[in-house]
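Subject: for your reference before the review

Hello V.,

The reviewers asked for a structural picture of the protein, and I figured it would be easier to keep everything in one thread rather than splitting it across files. Below is the amino acid sequence we used in the manuscript, unchanged from the supplementary table.
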Amino acid sequence: MSRKTTFWALSVLTLLSLVVTACGGPAPTPQVIVQTAPPQVQTAVVTAPPAVQTVVVTAAPPAGPKTLRLNMGPGDIPTIDPALSTDTSSVQIVEETTVGLTRQNEETASLEPGMAESWEFSPDGKKITFKVRQGVPWVRYNPLTKQVEKVVDEEGKDRIVTAKDFEYGILRTLDPKTASDYAYVLTTIIEGAADFNSGTITDTTKVGVKALDDWTLEVTLTDDAAGAAFVPNILGMWVAHAQPRWLIEERGDRWTETGFFQGYGPYTLKAWNHDADITLIKNPFWPGIPSVPQAKIEEITWTMLDESPAFAAYEAGELDVAGVPLSEIDRVKADPTLSKELKIGPVLCTYYYGFNVTKPPFDNPKVRLAFSLAVDRRSLIDNVTKGGQEPAQWFSRPGLTAAPTMQTHPNLGVKYDPEQAKKLLDEVYPDRSKMPPITLMMNQVEGHIKIGEAIAKMWEEVLGVKVTIQTQEWRVYLKTLTDDPPQIWRLGWCQDYPDANNFLKEVFRSDSQQNHTRWANPEFDRLVDEAAKEKDEAKRRELYAQAEDILVRQDAAIIPIYWYTRVTVTKPYVQRTFSILGGLEHIEKWDISK
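And here is what came back from the structure prediction:
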């Protein structure tokens, strides 16, 4: 997800990444037939996997009901519509309010059952069949009764999540009228999906997704995806979640607003105050399963503050978890209390700058490579980010299936080489005054700006080039990247599933909607296509290494900067897991100890 990971600049909820359209303002309370849940309803708690790590309780939590106070970063959430979500802020809400057929374990990235109790491939690998979990109701929060209620149909019967709801959700994501920027992850694996998404065909029966009955979903795969190990991961992603057809057809784009929203996950939407905060409330009707237990915390509220105000709120006891601003990391490490609350850990994400290769001077690969070689990544980490990040020589983070590693490919990619950087730029612009003005753009987050200033200083010192930094609010920035990418821009990419295919083919293939570089290379496309079909992991890794060499060195379409870590502080009364998924936390597993 370039998807955006966002929300605390160096913490994983801060990597925002791709494009989505913001929803409208608050909506009036809809008139929907509902069944109120008795306040005493309780469901059996399913214990989370034993691998869960917790923070030792040493202090008393705030009084009152269990309410978790978090921060999502500056700017409103673009959307909470599963079909339209592309960034981690949006997806975080979707993943708590709905559940996919499969689900990634947040600590290991391993695949676990979600709404599907089981799945299996056909002998030829061309079909995958999911058995959908029975008895999970659709719910909504009623602002008038202040209760989470089951949704009922015209006959007064509970609406239960079925395979037909998953079929509808997938088809709606693929429908060109929906204009989903993430539909591409489905078009590459589902037979007929690409033609339907492009408008070549309009008959949905020609798309390889079909509910055989209420509890059985069959997906027919493309030849390239047949039997691929990552197929169940993709079909568990938010764009393939069940969606409420009756509500969407009635309310249109406003179905995700306060009072309208309907979901079926461990939480549901209580209130979305645009540009201010968003609150989820526990769904008492979620049955609880090992991978997605019933929530222990009653409510979660995310504010929308920049890093420094959020960290100040944390120190004042107004937030329970926060990212650590770059300017505060040294103090936090030295503080006897804060240092115990600090957690630094790896996440499957890459921080990078991209070029618009159609805009001078970056229409020349020598210039692009010069700017990449002029970045001293180690110095940046040691003196600016200070969060234990790793210098990124290429894009796909080591640890992903089939991604190159420092052990297998130590000399792959780009490293700091100021002499070569200056030489390359001298070949194209011996007279620096002939270069056009250069702008580096990023979303308006304090940490990104500090990193940008440090890198701009490196470019000035090594290359003799001054670069102007420009910032935009997140939603505006995402639209800019889609409509007219600047000369240089910043993004972070976090895994949707732990495979190099998700980083290389799905981001930088010439036809990818996530590729904001305007760059295309047929050989790169061939390599990532071949790697996606190859079953031998060692061969796949070598193919991806060749593709990386084209991406970051031969054509230098991007500047890989570092592989992320999570840098957060957590109050000692919060028991939590620590996700490696790049901003996506499974908060239903968290607790607050009285």
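For the response letter, the relevant points are probably these. The chain has a mean pLDDT of 91. The chain has two domains: 12-307+571-592, 345-566.

Happy to draft the paragraph if you're swamped.

O.
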